[in-house]
Write a structure and sequence with these properties.
By secondary structure, the protein is an all-alpha fold. 48% of the residues lie in helices and 2% in strands.
Length: 282
């Protein structure tokens, strides 16, 4: 299962590198796969049989016959929107915040292997193998590799896991340029904002807002609009940020997932959202 995801993410990440630097084709391929494997393989080896059975059940559910009504995301009842309360963490990724605000991730902001795979497949429509690879990567770089948990925001505040070997898990708040990256569609680059990658960037927000035609009553923030914004923020970051940085994984594969996941998964919330409701909390 996960071998396909490794190959997919690896191929995605290599597209941008080898197209820009053709001479590095074979060298980067070897380097990328070796390092990606080193990051996630120890996590995969810690997954017990019960958890593998749950992952298999998630994959089987995905293979069921497509049903247009059943695929809609439930935002009622236990999945109604609730803002975070004191002690509940949220981070720089709006998509992950949505999952916690709607109870698909634990509302504390701290999630685990199975819960996060289930949410990414059920809500964002991600393939089980790809979700497994990305969650394993999250746990490896900012999570708890022993408990197989990770935080979408601040560190859960655990003690040192293994003195001299494993430090406390950091959470996504501490993952910029290792998981999260520059060129966000609405946030600032770390170097240009003195490390503040959480607050909205007014210039980028206004550019996104102004991409819609005021004379078209049906204009909405669909995939095409988000793609245009993504291309613009990437170019703007490259031009203005002398320390612009993207690791290979973010450079293509994660940006692709960030761009397509939300519009395709929340059709009534995102694809049909118009200027009048852009600032509404979701």
């Amino acid at each position: 299962m996960v071998n396909f995801a490794k190959a997919l993410l690896g191929a995605c990440a290599l597209v941008s590198t080898t197209s820009a630097f053709p001479a590095f084709d074979g060298e980067w391929e070897k380097f990328y796969f070796e390092n990606f494997d080193k990051a996630i393989d120890p996590i995969l080896k810690r997954i017990d049989q019960e958890s593998w059975n749950k992952i298999a059940a998630i994959e089987k559910r995905q293979q069921a016959t497509f049903n247009e009504d059943a695929q809609r995301v439930d935002v009622s009842g236990e999945h109604e929107y609730r803002p975070p309360t004191e002690g509940q963490t949220r981070g720089p990724c709006p998509g992950l915040n949505i999952l916690s605000n709607h109870g698909y991730f634990d509302r504390s902001g701290n999630t685990n292997l199975i819960e996060s795979i289930d949410a990414l497949t059920n809500v964002l429509g991600m393939g089980t193998d790809t979700a497994l690879a990305l969650v394993a990567y999250s746990i490896a770089i900012i999570g708890d590799p022993i408990a197989l948990t990770w935080s979408i925001g601040a560190s859960p505040g655990k003690e040192v896991l293994l003195p001299g070997v494993l430090s406390p898990p950091g959470g996504i708040d501490q993952s910029h340029n290792s998981y999260e990256s520059d060129a966000s569609i609405t946030r600032s680059d770390s170097y240009l904002s003195n490390g503040d990658v959480w607050s909205s960037n007014t210039t980028r927000f206004e550019h996104l807002y102004n991409l819609l035609d005021d004379n078209d009553p049906n204009a909405n923030f669909n995939l095409d609009v988000i793609n245009k914004q993504r291309a613009w923020t990437h170019d703007e970051s490259v031009y203005h940020n002398p320390n612009f940085f993207m690791r290979h994984l973010q450079d293509w594969s994660l940006h692709l997932l960030h761009t397509i996941s939300c519009p395709s998964s929340f059709p009534t919330i995102v694809q049909n959202i118009q200027k009048a409701t852009l600032t509404t909390t979701i």
